[in-house]
Amino acid sequence: MNAETIVGTSAQRVDVKDKATGQALYAADIQLPGMLYGKVVRCWEHAHARVVRLDLSQAAKSPGVVKVLGPADVTRNKYNSSVMDLMVSAQLHDMLGDIDDQDIFTTHVKYQGDAICGIIAKSEEAAERAAAKVIVEYEPLPVYLTAEASKQPDAVQFTPQKPGNRAFQLPEAMFPGNALGGGDVDAAMQDADIVVEDVFYVPKQKQCQMEPHAYIAKLDNAGRLTCWTSSQMPKLVQAKLAKLFELPMSRVKINATVIGGGFGARLGMISEPQACAMAMAVPGHPVKLQTLREEDWAISPSRHPGKYWMKIGLRKDGTPLACDARFENYKGAYYLDASGTAFTAGAWLGGMYKFPALRYKGESYFTNQGLTGAFRGYGNPQTNFALEQLIDRACAQVGADPVEWRKKWHKGVGDDGWCPGVTYPSCALDECLDRGAAAIDWAAKRRKYANQTGTKRRGVGCAVMNHTSGAMPMLLEHTVCTVKINEDATAEVVFACSDMGQGSHTALKQIAAETLGFPFGDVQLANPGSDAGFDIGAHASRTIYVGGAAVKAACEDAKRQLFARASEALQVPADQLDIRDKKIFAKSDPARSIDVESITRAGVYHFIDPMTGKPEGAPGQIQGYVSFFAPHNSPPFGASFAEVEVDTETGEVRVLELVNAHDIGRAINPAAVEGQLEGGIQQGLGFVLSEETYYDSQGRMLNNSFTDYKMFGPSDMPKIKTILVENADPVGPFGAKSVGESGLVSPVGAVANAIYHALGIQFMEAPITPEKVLKGINEKGLGGARERARAC
Amino acid sequence: MKDAAITLHINGEEHKLNVAVNRTLLEVLRDQLGMTETKYGCGTGECGACTVLVDDRAINSCLALAATMDGKRITTAAGFAHFGELNHIQQAFNDEAAIQCGYCTPGMIVKTASLLAKNPDPTEHEIRHALEGNICRCTGYEKIVKAVQKAARTAPGRTVKADAACQEVAQ
User: Fold this and answer.
1) A579: which of A6, A370, A489, A730 is 20 to 30 A away, CA to CA?
2) Cα A311 to Cα A330: distance, rounded to the nearest angstrom
3) Residue limits of the Aldehyde oxidase/xanthine dehydrogenase a/b hammerhead domain (chain A) (predicted)?
4) CA distance A705 to chain B (A)
5) Who contacts A133 (Cβ-Cβ below 8 Å, separation ≥6)?
6) Which pLDDT does position B1 carry in this prediction?
7) Residue A2's pLDDT is what?
């Protein structure tokens, strides 16, 4: 039984009224006096070309235009819109080979939508009319859509810094043989009785956050550049912009706006450099830059697609011996996040099962598809699609039940997690598997669907996953939190980590109120953007695990100061005091108590008694503070179970039910946690069944719209069941681990395995569309489709 | 571009406006009137973030030219709340934790109002069908469907209102 009264409840979201009435201000909703409108002119005709002529003269004369900016009118400094370089040591940075290869306005177009020049006008319409008058002539270059194409020796080089267009591979100095893992994989494979192996393709999935990216930037009269942005990481964007424009950080300010969904799309920068470059050209005027949906699709990074080769070896009793894998991702046009996903895809692989020998190679190759970067899961769904299908294939060969095999061989407490040396402090994956299996009626349905012959065939499948809670030890894990106790005994928590919509600020407020012993309504949580202390932002599922621990530590600091003053007043040692409802009392004698307000008021309104000449109470406003570094990492685990029905005539896969059972440590706000797991299912189903941005042979997007890019809608969604397995983690705040990303990962493998169960066929390319299913059925000679085709 | 003089009755208030004939209702609401509760999500009628009621019918305001709306009664999500008091639909979205990033929420709430006006007791299937034009990327729709069900249960004077709505449809 937990003693907490606020943590563990589905407290009402702090932003609900603003959002229910539409009053929440997203960046595009903000209007400022004297505002001008920016428009980035982009290359839509080509995905790879050189600009041979740029004539802005007609655009400059267009009505309402204030300024036009070409590449020569803005800083020529290059940048990298990802923030990875800020989160690793200089030594690791050099080892990884991070580069700055992006320009505010380019002369070498590397993807459809690359920025050519900018227009600043008095209205958005005037800017658009002027944009149409920009004259650009291009020299088209060969278009490379895959790694196989761009790595050819005669291919045009994307940057001289990365020969062969290989943006990244695991560095030899850190990963001998350019491979992550350990043990003698080749020898272990020799010993294996069963070896399963395949090449998978994973798709270029788009975040499709509902709010298109929008910005306002202003250079004020004091020379301070302010940018209103919905970035997931205001402090790091401040640092990035300061570096790009060669300004001291004190002259760059980020205002964090309400975020209309992130899912990784807002990790780092997107068009902040263009918005700020425009603002710097018109000092004193705010410039608003809004992106159209189709533009947003082009310019914001997507998930890394690519080829994933994997091979696993087992003894005939099912004992896993070795796993050998190589993920070659199609990086897209620029370097950003080239190192991250190439590494983490292998890290999740290593964190999952007890393979004594593991060798994973990750490489990123430049291509002329749009950018890739962070997307919820960050390499994990790619690995899940390949690994979990191979596990089921191997289970079929050794005659093992997929649930039982996973229970036996997954890693757990004391084993290395995704990073060697950082062990799992908690693991309740067995319980996830047991409860998930019971929920979907696993054993009965596995038998029932074993030998079907009809047109519509059903199957059940399961998959498991591990993820992360913050990025320690790979990346910097640092959050500063300040808790100011007001004179009326209410608290303000100041913290620069964004709430992207997941409800993290509500949960953090619960943590603060619980720790302080204050009512929930007496705590405010503010994200003032870069004016707050340092923080690395909302990414890597860290906001509650790391941010929550920081909030808790800052509140404990404030509480310690309160108790010290109460101890003085009550003449009771501080360690014998407790707090409830803003009253501090002696544990042994609750009647000996003092109101928190009498302490805080005396601290702020600190007077000298004119009669005695002595001060009243202890002086000073109490502020809790922490500069917090995560001491560990407690990854969450999850198990998903899917039931599908495959129509062997149309190839359509209907997901009937999806169970997401997750070991989240402790749910600070259960309704919000469920929301993460439910929303994750929608995105995971999209990855495995329907979502991919397609390109024509010239690298132009074919489906950058919600009509042509198929996400699961309300009628497509299956019956959903989320199971919160609460097994308090010894490290996380109040036992909490993360949940932000993990929900979408294992539905991927579960659905693929359910299809395998239904048809006896595995599909190597995601998304598993009806066309691919039909093709697979026809190749295998299954079911009615082929017979009917013959009969016709 | 020519202007058109129109009158819109938005959330109970009359607005006499000159609007450029090429401006959509969404642009006029947001840019001309500063009523930013109606969101731009795609501009092509695919996502439903800009849903408003026009004389009780839910439309994508990004697809309607403002000049064609002369004399119409327009309701946005803000029009359902009264000085911070949420109506039963908004309250249900709150109670069921159906709001995450909130960007689709105003459109979802408006679409729910139009559904419940026509069909005060919808089945789950009918709710999901009605919301097909409104994309949410956060929730998986699970809690949104529950919120619509709760809104149907908690509608004030539900039977009376339902009868009136049915008669209106019949006429």
Assistant:
1) A730
2) 21
3) 21-142
4) 8
5) A58, A59, A62
6) 66
7) 58
Q: Which CATH number describes the domain made up of A31-141+210-261+266-299?
A: 3.90.1170.50
Asked if A704 contacts A636 with a C-beta cutoff of 8 angstroms, the reply is no
Superfamily of domain B85-170: [2Fe-2S]-binding domain (1.10.150.120)
Q: What is the pLDDT of residues A700-725, one digit of tens each?
A: 999 999 999 999 999 999 999 999 99
Give domain A478-629's CATH number out of 3.90.870.40, 3.40.50.300, 3.30.428.10, 3.30.365.10: 3.30.365.10
How many contacts, defined by CB atoms under 8 Å, are there between A and B? 174
Domain boundaries, chain B: 3-79, 85-170
Return d(Cα A191, Cα A393) in angstroms, integer. Answer: 19
Whole-angstrom Cα distance, residue A700 to residue A43?
10
Q: Mark yes or no for CB contact B93/A211 under 8 Å.
A: no
Asked if residue A786 has pLDDT above 80, the reply is: no
The ipTM is: 0.96
Return the pLDDT at B166.
42
**Considering chain A, what is the average pLDDT of its residues?**
96
| B131 touches B144 (CB < 8 A) | yes
Q: How far is A262 from chain B (nearest CA, A)?
A: 9
**Candidate from B36, B97, B103 with C-beta closest to A675:** B97
Interacting residues of A357 by C-beta distance below 8 A, sequence separation 6+:
A181, A182, A183, A184, A185, A187, A188, A189, A321, A322, A323
B171: pLDDT confidence band, cut at 50, 70 and 90? very low
Q: How confident is the model at residue A784, as a pLDDT?
A: 53
- On whether the CB atoms of residues A302 and A376 are closer than 8 A, the answer is no
User: Rounded CA gap, A510 and A258, in Å?
Assistant: 20
Using a CB-CB cut-off of 8 Å, the residues of chain B touching A668 are: none
pLDDT in tens, A22-52: 999 999 999 999 999 999 999 999 999 999 9
Domain definitions of chain A by residue range:
31-141+210-261+266-299, 306-472+632-791, 478-629
Q: For the residues of A481-530, what is the DSSP string, one character each?
A: EEEEEPTTS-EEEEE-----SSSHHHHHHHHHHHHHT--GGGEEEE--GG
Residue B157: the pLDDT is 82
Statement: B3-79 belongs to CATH 3.30.1360.40:
no
- Binning pLDDT at 50, 70 and 90, where does residue B38 land? very high
C-alpha pair distances (Å), A311 with each of A135, A195, A362, A393, A743: 52, 7, 15, 11, 26
The label of the residue with tokens 């569309």 reads A769
How far is CA A467 from each of CA A97, A329, A345, A419, A638, rounded to the nearest angstrom?
Answer: 25, 20, 10, 11, 9
Looking at residue B128, its amino acid is R
**A306-472+632-791 and A478-629 agree in CATH topology:** yes
Question: What is the C-alpha to C-alpha distance for residues A370 and A302, in angstroms, rounded to an integer?
Answer: 8
**Which residues in A lie closer than 8 A to residue B38 (C-beta atoms)?**
22
pLDDT digits (tens, 9 = 90+) for A572-591: 999 999 998 899 999 999 99
**CA-CA-CA-CA dihedral for A593, A554, A738, A339, to nearest 10:** 180
Q: A300 with A50: CB under 8 angstroms? A: no
Amino acid at A178: N
Mutate: best of A13, A17, A18, A19, partner B, most B CBs <10 A:
A19
DSSP B169: H
How do residues A527-551 score in pLDDT, each as one tens digit?
Answer: 889 999 999 999 999 999 999 999 9
Q: Is A306-472+632-791 a domain of CATH 3.30.365.10?
A: yes
Q: Taking the CB of residue A268, how many other CB atoms lie within 10 A of it?
A: 28
Please tell me if the domain spanning B3-79 has the same topology as the one spanning B85-170. Answer: no
Per-residue pLDDT, averaged over A560-573, amounts to 97
Chain A, nearest residue to B38 by Cα: A22
Q: What confidence score (pLDDT) does residue A4 get?
A: 87
Contact between chains at A20 and B109 (C-beta distance less than 8 A)? yes
